[in-house]
Amino acid sequence: MNMSKKFSRRDFLAFLGVTGVVAGCFSIVNYTVQGEQVELIRPPGAITEEDFLATCLRCRKCVEVCPQNIIKTVPLEYGIKLFDTPYIESGICIADFACIDACPSGALQKITLEEYKIGTVEINRKTCIFCMLCVSVCPYNALDTPRDSEGKLIPRTPPVVNVEKCTGCGTCVPKCPTKPSSLKVTAKNARRVKVEGMIV
Amino acid sequence: MRKSQLILILRHLSQIAFFVLLIFFVVGVFCSFAIWGLNISCPVGSIQQIFASKTFYVVLIVSALPLIILPILFGRFFCSWMCPMGTIYEALTPITNRIKSPIKLPSFLRKQSNKVGIAFGSFIAAGIASSPAWCTVCPVGAVCKSATGCPVIGGSVAVVTLGLEGIEQRTFCKYICPIGGVFVVLSKIGQKFNYKVKLPVDDCRECRSCERACKYGVPILEYTRMKFKEDPRVSELANKMGITKEELLRKAWKENIPELKAIAKDYSIASPECAKCFECVNACPILKVKK
Fold first, then answer.
1. How many CB pairs under 8 A join A and B?
2. Are residues B56 and B182 in the same domain?
């Protein structure tokens, strides 16, 4: 193409056409190619899901800095909008917030340890063997031995999860002696940061 | 060693350094990386993010500034000095130089304004769909991310662009890449004062070696020699010396005419598409002889 020729009206229309086609295609693909609806465990400090998908740059900085290597990126099966965003499938989050410090986009906001909650642990009552090992390892004292009103131990009952205290860090999951583990961390009750307007 | 060769070696070193750094060492990828404590983010990704999230995150905007200010001052230098995709293409040139493709891309695809269109289109799409639309298909990001598992779509797009390289060199960079598109727009903004590559305009014999060496499709002579020939000062000078313009220009091949040199200084490759790769300077036979 000869660039020394003036940018004609025809060229400008072609440019607008390309802009329109690209904008249309990308937005249609984003709305139509959607995978199964799942609630994923996001790294600590993640903002509300809709804002998170809009804000995350998909730069994988959090994946690279995670000292535990537990942050993974979402595969294509979950839809194009979620594709390549960070999530935690399994593993122990030690809450040193390296991911938050690394995040350039504001998708992970600065939080304190009190605000930290990426999910809640759930106990499978069918496979639990009532060994209470998980109670002893929980760093947040979120798991309690089942006791009645008089403080007596109730036999043959799985531990009680304190939803307020549990952060979903996953320390208890590998400690469970059953195979597969009776404990599972889900994204339920995760504390997500709400943002509005300009973030400084 | 000639100056142009030294610049070429420096450029290749910079390419290799950034390729290795971005993929293996630096935390993050080209989309956003930290180097000596300085955060640098991809301008296309950052603008899309602003459109998608409808918020202004000051940290992100500040980190996008280096790659917005530098192209205003130095044009599209990123493409030939830092871009990992460009490094791969350049490493493949010994092979792609030999391929004579029977197919040619249709003319509507061979428009350099297309990449700007794709950039603006993805900004709009990001605003509509509230997610960075281009980033999911971006092959540059995919190559950088490959150390922690290559994303499927971006990786396949990267392979497709390598195939396009067989049809026409730097097809992706010239017509598709929205990152290049944004850089071209930025370099157009700073056209009055930004850095431009200079060629010996007064000695030029229009052999077009520079145009053949240019991978980014810049019609170099249109910007330099052709404009120089039409400069009224040249014909004025010819009148003053009592010879025709053609004779004066031919005279300049053999003799040093300082007045003509002074006029020639005003001419450089003022195209915003120029990636400052110095391949044209290296290819120029006049410079090879003159040193």
1. 185
2. yes
